[in-house]
Amino acid sequence: MPRPLLFNAFEMPVPVHQSPGLWRHPEDESRNYASPAHWEREARTIEAAGFHGIFLADVLGLYDVYGASPDAALRGGVQVPQLDPLLLAPLLARATEHLAVGVTASVTYAAPYDLARRFATLDALTDGRIAWNVVTSYQESAALNLGLGTQLPHDERYDRADEYMDVVYALWEGSYEEDAYTADRDSGVVVDPAKVRGAGHHGTYFDVTAPSLTAPTRQRTPYLFQAGASPRGLAFAAKHAEAVFFSGPTPEHVARWTGRLREEAETAGRDPRSVKAFTNVAVVVAETGDAARERLAEYTRYVDVPAALALFGGWTGVDLSDADPDAPLEHVETDANRSALASFTTMDPDAAWTPRRVAEFVAIGGRGPVITGSPEEVADEVERWARVADVDGFNVNACVRPADFERFGRFVAPVLRERGLLEPARGTSDDDAVSSVRSAREVFGGAGPRLPRDHPGAAHRR
Amino acid sequence: MPRPLLFNAFEMPVPVHQSPGLWRHPEDESRNYASPAHWEREARTIEAAGFHGIFLADVLGLYDVYGASPDAALRGGVQVPQLDPLLLAPLLARATEHLAVGVTASVTYAAPYDLARRFATLDALTDGRIAWNVVTSYQESAALNLGLGTQLPHDERYDRADEYMDVVYALWEGSYEEDAYTADRDSGVVVDPAKVRGAGHHGTYFDVTAPSLTAPTRQRTPYLFQAGASPRGLAFAAKHAEAVFFSGPTPEHVARWTGRLREEAETAGRDPRSVKAFTNVAVVVAETGDAARERLAEYTRYVDVPAALALFGGWTGVDLSDADPDAPLEHVETDANRSALASFTTMDPDAAWTPRRVAEFVAIGGRGPVITGSPEEVADEVERWARVADVDGFNVNACVRPADFERFGRFVAPVLRERGLLEPARGTSDDDAVSSVRSAREVFGGAGPRLPRDHPGAAHRR
């Protein structure tokens, strides 16, 4: 019997998340990205489709590598205009019954004392269904406008992030004993001060002495996601993250990363299987394989090439704005951009890479595979990916939003359920008491709503 | 015919906002401060009671003057534990039809580029029903834990806040032309870059060159509240605020401030009547005056003296922890605290002030009056206050939450409506099309959802 897999809908409150041009598809609703009712409907669609969670990406800056200007990103709506994902999260949770809600937030923009309060608030307002995608890096264009000066060197950024996590663990896990907040009318005591202690943190980057501003919430520490591939990044992820994202072109490629992740987790003293590995996929599915391939061809016709190259430029630092979109890519290679291009072109070494081909690749698959076919074909490929890559789940990209999520639920989920690869559909509040709603940590396989004992955050408990 | 007045419910997501001890009253529900369903119900109660808006206070630190420790504040639940009010705002708006939602946010904790995105997101998610209470100051205890070092000198803090406002206006008002965001499928253009420009701000405190990350929302700039009483604070408020809060013990006292505010607004080139003046009141009402006074006596018995003195200590810097609660206050006066105490004791110069009397005063009325009586008596006093103080509206404090808001709606609102002092009850979505829902700016008397032409933010428009 295979173990069930985990599925997140990967989203962003923007006109274009990862598929430039596809907003023009007649079924796409991304133009409504700023409407709360749109997001409430979409969250319900995603929940009904069988996803475990919705994950919201974030970037606090504009993509301005392509043509050394944000114009292509603006014209194509590439992750701009946008909303702050944290403010959307409570609405997504209130509109659904048991969907976990993941949000991206950088350890760079807010003081840990402030961000700790925000995530405790989110944990309260979602009744423990919140997950935090911890981001350590940021764009230079964001840093500039946020008044942050130049970035720290790569490894030092992780040192600072390590200390940041220590502070927020001290606040979430160590500050209040379990029964410190009673608000007991007979005793007249709201919080017993003897059961509260200050964070008492004096470090290299932060000094936080006060206790948490928030009482313990259902999870205390939000469920922690992270993405990291460099050696230092992987060590950080293996220490702190409960689930890790990684994109790769083949399951074998991802398997090498998964192996390193599990080794690092073991080195860090954690159960290597307790760290969930997720990889990105795009799924294009229809009743038959032919219909699915036709749909993929249709999607491809909607790709906005300059906009996709603006996204590619932001990811790689390579500006393809001067290149003939249909000329072989070798002509625009320089020493500076060769390795960046290589990270893409090696995904399909036999392809005749041109800027247009890069754009189509980015816009349909992002940095992961596109699984196209009938429901059975897609389920086969999902199963193969999970087995070979040794991942626990997938972040599913939608080219057409939210239609592709709805189609995943309609076509793929039933086949996955038949095979035991997806848990049975969960009841609604009519037949499922609220108290049985799982926290995000339990949705993703945790034994309970709190950090496991072998997690470094648990060391801050009294 | 009198002009209708404006009423905000003054709230905070904490066990105790301004009335330490009153959470023990059998009708009080503040212990549920961390429950989203509690706040959705309360927002609906406040809307049904006829209030124009709900206003959420905020403070990112603990009250630790009393006994040089946060223990009394923790034990009494005085504004701790808490939630981040910004994250609560979208839920309050979604749970109601037309209630304006005001939130407090400091210009100290977030970069203007970040906070501008947050308020644009809130304006989108509330469909233009958001107001921002601009706070320039902060507690030393907050600053310490947020890594902000020592505060700027008072007047320089306002210089920095002035520049901060310039940056956010440039982003909200100047960055996108009205029709820059089209997401037009035929043209394939999401945003026309020719209709977008960078903030281009190079100042003393901030450098923000990029365009806004957000497209124009219904209000663009959120409706702006502020509190300021010092000459520099009043000049800041008169320049930027569309509504200003001020607390005072008598309407005559408040009238002097209102006069100065209107003069300053005129000096700043604005219509002095376009700046709305609000003052704080607590209302204790019942069927008869005697029943109301009995209820006030009952409330007073619930006051938590040390917790109220912890709140008082936070406001004034005066630590009364060593004083006999029933000894005359003169005995604890020192040069250092005489003027701080004076700001309270002059509110009722004939009273025999003791620490207990200060605590009761704080816990029931805060820094404003307590209007107690039958519905007609309360309406009379509200009318007198509005006339003599020349205010446009009131921030109503509830001692028992949310019962006092519900009672205001049940007892006082009908009498105010009879007298033309409160606009008629607004319909629900059944008989009132969503398109007729007013923006916060219109709720508070503006001609439309956008800043008026004579507001300095409007100068950033193209």
From TrEMBL, chains A, B:
- Any Pfam family from its record, for instance, is Bac_luciferase
Q: Would you say which domain of life the source belongs to?
A: Bacteria
UniProt keyword terms in alphabetical order: Flavoprotein, FMN, Monooxygenase, Oxidoreductase
Enzyme Commission code(s) on record: 1.14.13.131
Q: Which GO MF terms are attached to this record?
A: dimethyl sulfide monooxygenase activity
Q: Which residues form the Luciferase-like domain?
A: 32-387
Q: Which InterPro entries match?
A: Diverse_substr_monoxygenases, Luciferase-like_dom, Luciferase-like_sf, NTA_MOA
In this chain, FMN is annotated as bound at D58, T104, H154, Y158, S230
The reply on keyword Repeat is no
**Basic and acidic residues bias locations:** 451-462
Residue numbers spanned by region Disordered: 424-462
NCBIfam families to which the protein is assigned, alphabetical: FMN_nitrolo
Similarity section: Belongs to the NtaA/SnaA/DszA monooxygenase family.
This protein's name: Dimethyl-sulfide monooxygenase
